[in-house]
Design brief:
The protein is mainly alpha-helical. It has eight helices and three strands.
Length: 178
């Protein structure tokens, strides 16, 4: 990737900064709630990508006082706004899926069905944790009136994906548990 290339993470950060700007902790908090539900990425990537976008002129920075030390507050530049708006108008590709649980079924004939079920059942706990995160994200959305409608629509997809995974596990238990 060239140092000027923008990625989905780049646009995610531009979107998180949004109209009102965001501090680094706010970017990380938005990613913490959203990452397990919508995209995969490490917290450290948020820091480095925000700095990179600032160095490329998509974001401007300002140091603001905080509890223990100053924090960086980001705002979209005109270039950042135009770039984000241009990207928002492009066709969205089908999401990339790397679904390890589903891939395990590809070779499940190598082990007894109970082994496969034992490996997949822990997904229920992960679904429950993500449902709790979903509830937290919905509460946060209500505090962002300019984005609430869109965030709730996004979270509707997440709810459906979690329900689909729960239903899929039910099916696996019916089929493989016999």
């Amino acid at each position: 990737m060239s140092s000027e290339t923008l990625t989905t993470l780049s646009y995610t950060i531009l979107g998180l900064v949004g109209r009102n700007g965001a501090s680094t902790p706010e970017l990380v908090d938005g990613a913490r709630r959203g990452a397990p539900l919508i995209w995969a990425g490490a917290e450290s990537q948020i820091y480095s990508e925000a700095r990179r976008l600032a160095s490329l002129g998509y974001l401007e920075t300002e140091k603001q006082p905080a509890k223990t030390r100053s924090r960086t507050f980001y705002r979209l530049t005109e270039r950042g706004r135009e770039t984000l708006m241009g990207w928002l108008g492009t066709p969205a590709p089908f999401p990339r899926i790397q679904h390890e649980a589903a891939i395990r079924l590809l070779a499940a004939d190598f082990v007894p069905d109970e082994t496969t079920l034992a490996a997949l059942r822990p997904l229920r706990g992960e679904i429950e944790r993500r449902e709790a995160l979903l509830a937290e994200s919905e509460a946060a959305a209500h505090g962002l009136p300019h984005r609430e409608r869109y965030l709730l629509l996004q979270l509707s997809l997440v709810r459906r994906l979690l329900r689909a995974h729960r239903d899929w596990l039910d099916e696996l238990e019916r089929e493989l548990g016999e």
